[in-house]
């Protein structure tokens, strides 16, 4: 008889701008360091469950972004699937962490990977974390530059007009 799959969800929770930090939490039951995650409640949407778990385990309100992937392993003889989303945390905590969590640390990517207790989570975070942070930086720089030639010309005209008007103001 096949045993029912355990469904869980969580997040790679990031906060900070120029030097982003990733949340890792220490569980009280075994003192292991993991990414914020947990079992889904009956009929719970995985993204909503991931958000709930991240808030409960980090104490920070989070905004859920794109799906990053999943890891699968066996837990107590049953298959377990944990889906992860990229999340951005508010700067300050909004509530206490749940009693099952001993500590929360916000670490740079490399330190977060080293801190995790499970090799599969380390591998997942190393691979997905690099891509995720690169994409974040790329989006931030891409927004500043116009996409089309007409937009570039328009931006140049705007700068020229602004310079001319400031020269007139200084001449008076």
Tags for this model:
32% strand, seven-stranded mixed beta sheet, alpha+beta, 172 residues, globular, Nucleoside Triphosphate Pyrophosphohydrolase
Describe what you observe in this structure:
With 172 residues, the chain is of the alpha+beta class. It has one domain (6-144): Nucleoside Triphosphate Pyrophosphohydrolase, CATH 3.90.79.10. The chain is built from four helices and seven strands, in the order E-E-E-E-H-E-E-E-H-H-H. Strands 1, 2, 3, 4, 5, 6 and 7 form a seven-stranded mixed sheet that branches. The protein is globular.
CATH architecture: Alpha-Beta Complex
Fourth-tier CATH superfamily name:
Nucleoside Triphosphate Pyrophosphohydrolase
Q: What is the rounded distance between the termini?
A: 89 Å
- The helicity comes to 40-55%
How would you concisely characterize the structure shown here?
By secondary structure, the chain is an alpha+beta fold. Helices cover 40% and strands 32% of the residues. It has one domain: Nucleoside Triphosphate Pyrophosphohydrolase (Alpha-Beta Complex).
How is the topology of this model organized?
Layout: E1 6-15, E2 21-27, E3 33-34, E4 37-39, H1 46-58, E5 62-75, E6 78-89, E7 101-107, H2 109-115, H3 119-144, H4 149-171
Parallel strand pairs: 1-6
Antiparallel strand pairs: 1-2, 1-4, 2-3, 2-7, 5-6
């Amino acid at each position: 008889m096949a045993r029912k799959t355990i469904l869980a969800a969580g997040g790679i929770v990031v906060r900070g701008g120029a030097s982003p930090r990733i949340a890792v939490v220490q569980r009280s039951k075994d003192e292991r360091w993991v990414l914020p995650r947990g079992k889904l409640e009956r009929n719970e949407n995985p993204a909503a469950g991931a958000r709930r778990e991240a808030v409960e385990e980090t104490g920070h309100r989070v905004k859920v972004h794109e799906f990053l992937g999943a890891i699968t392993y066996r837990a107590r003889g049953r298959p377990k699937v944990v889906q992860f989303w990229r999340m951005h945390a508010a700067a300050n905590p909004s509530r206490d962490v749940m009693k099952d969590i001993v500590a929360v640390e916000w670490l740079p990517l490399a330190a977060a990977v080293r801190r995790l207790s499970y090799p599969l989570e380390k591998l997942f975070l190393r691979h997905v974390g690099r891509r995720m942070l690169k994409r974040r930086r790329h989006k931030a720089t891409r927004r500043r530059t116009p996409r089309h030639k007409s937009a570039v010309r328009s931006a140049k005209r705007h700068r020229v007009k602004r310079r001319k008007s400031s020269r007139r103001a200084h001449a008076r």
